[in-house]
From TrEMBL:
Its main location: membrane. Residues 404-436 are annotated as: Disordered. Keywords: Cell shape, Glycosyltransferase, Membrane, Peptidoglycan synthesis, Transferase, Transmembrane, Transmembrane helix. Residues 404-413 have a biased composition (Basic and acidic residues). The chain crosses the membrane at residues 13-38, 74-95, 116-137, 157-185, 192-211, 286-307, 319-340, 352-373. It is found in: Membrane. It catalyses: [GlcNAc-(1->4)-Mur2Ac(oyl-L-Ala-gamma-D-Glu-L-Lys-D-Ala-D-Ala)](n)-di-trans,octa-cis-undecaprenyl diphosphate + beta-D-GlcNAc-(1->4)-Mur2Ac(oyl-L-Ala-gamma-D-Glu-L-Lys-D-Ala-D-Ala)-di-trans,octa-cis-undecaprenyl diphosphate = [GlcNAc-(1->4)-Mur2Ac(oyl-L-Ala-gamma-D-Glu-L-Lys-D-Ala-D-Ala)](n+1)-di-trans,octa-cis-undecaprenyl diphosphate + di-trans,octa-cis-undecaprenyl diphosphate + H(+). InterPro entries: FtsW/RodA. This is Probable peptidoglycan glycosyltransferase FtsW. Coiled coil: none annotated. The lineage of its organism: Bacteria, Pseudomonadati, Bacteroidota, Flavobacteriia, Flavobacteriales.
Length: 436
């Protein structure tokens, strides 16, 4: 175990927060899954779901461990190669949506032979963030202009978002917001950011008008998220209101100290209690203290991302940490905001805590790249420390040699002085007396 911990490179604080969130996830997932077990098997035994979640977390940490060993600058090239592949996967996802757990599954594809579902938009967002970081960190002889950045940067961004938008508005909006934030931090001209924001608003408005005018042309989830926005702003009763009401009842029932682990009542009535609304179950079982603790862990993780970005010695490394780290925390905030009805229902999971393989794996992939950046800084620090040790050792050897030479010179001088003193003290008549 000590060897494994010693082999972990990068920011140890990030490792600690990630491990805490992952370990804590087993308790609410096990509790919330009992409802699924009862509905599907009639037994209420959630051990199968717990083992499944454990396997997903294990695979996620395996991905995290392997990715953090890869030098992060490799992902600069990988993002360019993967972006067209991601577009193909997104198109395939839109065309081949299936029903999973009663919902339109146009967000997922099923991996052949092994039967695992995979959310392609999660992978697309990671690739896009690294791609944007690569563009913003490029060394240029001429300043950025709107004309060249439209083709090199914003065309790939809008293509990716357009392929995600019909199935998942919240993810598309989150990606666009994160890309704009990344562009601002990467010192992309603010006047151009205003133009891009205007173009994004116009494009979204046009898409909504087309979707309303031709509803059969977008049969996936366009109507769903349009209705969610309408119902959130007008307070019309619908299925989402049922979810929100049950979530608020769960939060109110938890009080300050909570009902205790596994004692949630609303998990039996709240849909998606182990994924989208798991934060409500956490507050119900662990109270206000538990809810604040989870919120604090994400905020501390955000602070650590800021520290890691500040320590990065390259602009690409800084932007990668921000582009991959901030969306994890913002997604968590979105999930918690939905549970307390600050936002309409979005379908965003709580990173590292909610059940769901692709969500956990993509979060671990992002964290692995971030830790690769911090590992590089750690390696540089270790190299500098080792170099300083060698220089100190060499200086000590030189000082020792100089001291020895100085001591030898002093000894020779002392011997010469003593010899001269003996000659002066000798009796000058001694040879004559010996002769007589």
């Amino acid at each position: 175990m000590k060897e494994l911990i010693h082999s972990l490179k990068g920011d140890k604080v990030i490792w600690a927060f990630v491990a805490l969130l992952a370990l804590f996830s087993f308790m609410p997932v096990f509790s919330a899954s009992s409802n699924l077990a009862y509905m599907r098997h009639g037994s209420g035994n959630a051990l199968t779901y717990l083992l499944k979640h454990g396997a997903q977390v294990f695979v996620g940490f395996f991905i995290l461990y392997k990715i953090h060993k890869v030098p992060y600058h490799y992902f600069r090239t990988i993002s360019r190669v993967m972006l067209p592949v991601v577009w193909v996967l997104l198109i395939y996802t839109l065309v081949n949506g299936k029903v999973i757990q009663g919902a339109n599954a146009s967000r997922w594809i099923q991996i052949p032979f092994i039967g695992i579902t995979f959310q392609t938009s999660a992978l697309a967002s990671l690739v896009l963030y690294v791609f944007v970081a690569r563009y913003l960190s490029k060394t240029r002889e001429t300043p950025i202009t709107l004309q060249n950045s439209l083709w090199e940067l914003w065309t790939p961004v809008f293509i990716t978002i357009a392929l995600i938008l019909p199935a998942n508005l919240s993810t598309a909006a989150l990606i666009f917001a994160m890309v704009v934030m990344l562009a601002f931090i990467g010192k992309y001209p603010i006047k151009y950011i205003g133009v891009i924001l205007g173009a994004g608003i116009v494009g979204l408005t046009f898409f909504i008008l087309v979707a309303k005018q031709f509803p059969d042309a977008f049969p996936n989830r366009v109507d769903t998220w349009i209705n969610r926005i309408d119902n959130f702003t007008t307070d019309k009763p619908d299925e989402d209101d049922y979810q929100i009401e049950k979530a608020k009842i769960a939060i109110a029932s938890g009080g300050v100290y909570g009902l205790g682990p596994g004692k949630s009542v609303q998990k039996n009535f709240l849909p998606q209690s182990s994924s989208d609304f798991i934060y409500a179950i956490i507050v119900e079982e662990y109270g206000l203290f538990g809810g604040i603790l989870v919120l604090s862990l994400y905020l501390l993780l955000l602070f650590r991302f800021v520290v890691a970005a500040h320590k990065a010695n390259s602009l690409f490394g800084k932007l990668v940490v921000i582009g991959l780290g901030f969306p994890i925390v913002f997604q968590a905030m979105t999930n918690m905001a939905v549970a307390v009805e600050l936002l309409p229902v979005t379908g965003q999971t709580l990173p590292l805590i909610s059940s769901g393989g692709s969500s956990i794996w993509m979060t671990c992939l992002a964290l692995g790249i971030i830790l690769s950046v911090t590992k590089k800084e750690e390696e540089i620090a270790e190299e500098l420390a080792e170099k300083q040790k060698r220089e100190d050792a060499l200086q000590r050897m030189i000082d020792k040699q100089l001291q020895e030479e100085e001591a030898a010179e002093k000894a020779a001088e002392q011997a010469e002085l003593e010899s001269y003193s003996i000659q002066e003290d000798a009796n000058p008549l001694e040879p004559i007396l010996k002769k007589k």
